Amino acid sequence: MGPVRTRTKICGIARVEDALVAADAGADAIGLVFYGPSPRAVTLEQAVQIAEAVPAFVTLTGLFVNPTRMDVEQVLARVPLDLLQFHGDETQDFCGQFHRRWIKAVRVRGRDDIESAFVDWNRASGLLVDAYDPQRYGGTGQSFDWSVIPEQRPLPLILAGGLNSANVATAIRQVQPWGVDVSGGVEASGPEGTRKGIKDAAKITEFLSEVNRANQTD
Ligand SMILES: O=C(O)c1ccccc1NCC(=O)[C@H](O)[C@H](O)COP(=O)(O)O
After folding, report:
1. Does the structure's ipTM exceed the value 0.85?
2. 95 included as an active-site residue
3. Is CB count within 10 Å lower at the N or C end of the chain?
4. Among the options 18, 130, 181, 200, which is catalytic?
């Protein structure tokens, strides 16, 4: 039996209007990418504007990939993040030094990756499981074999990777995660796939409606 309600995070937000759509549609959290190489990376100025616009009770999350301590501190000095999300090869001590709750993202090749992550990251506030891509740390739009996810979970499990409104209800019924995380699946369409960092309001609303539907039909 999973949580009574699946928590939701809309990730890779880069515009105030997308943050407000996500909040109005009921998202529990939004994610800002502080990783320069990402096409969804935000500047500090963008992040400050989004943070000022986000209403209470929506968890403002900052994503990092192998940052230095100063990188994170410089963001926190300007942007009031509620939660940190680490995607790289950081250590637990590194992640825990900022006086913020934090979660760890792991790229999953098989069940062992998740089971060892529950041990290695036992001080995290949650474990985000995402598709494995050797070249990219996250935001790939790819899903993975959910059947490798163990039922025993010492930490809240957040399912990510290739979710969209067509598959999220199935994912919730099958995996019973604490939360779900989406980025590419709610982005606007463009000539070469999705427009990274530009969300589609209708896709966000549909995604969150599907989560609600799955929760009601459990
Ligand atoms: O979005 C990025 O470009 C990114 C780059 C480096 C690390 C993490 C990144 N994003 C993380 C996420 O957006 C999500 O947590 C997750 O990977 C889901 O993405 P998607 O498969 O596109 O739904």
Report:
1. yes
2. no
3. N
4. 130
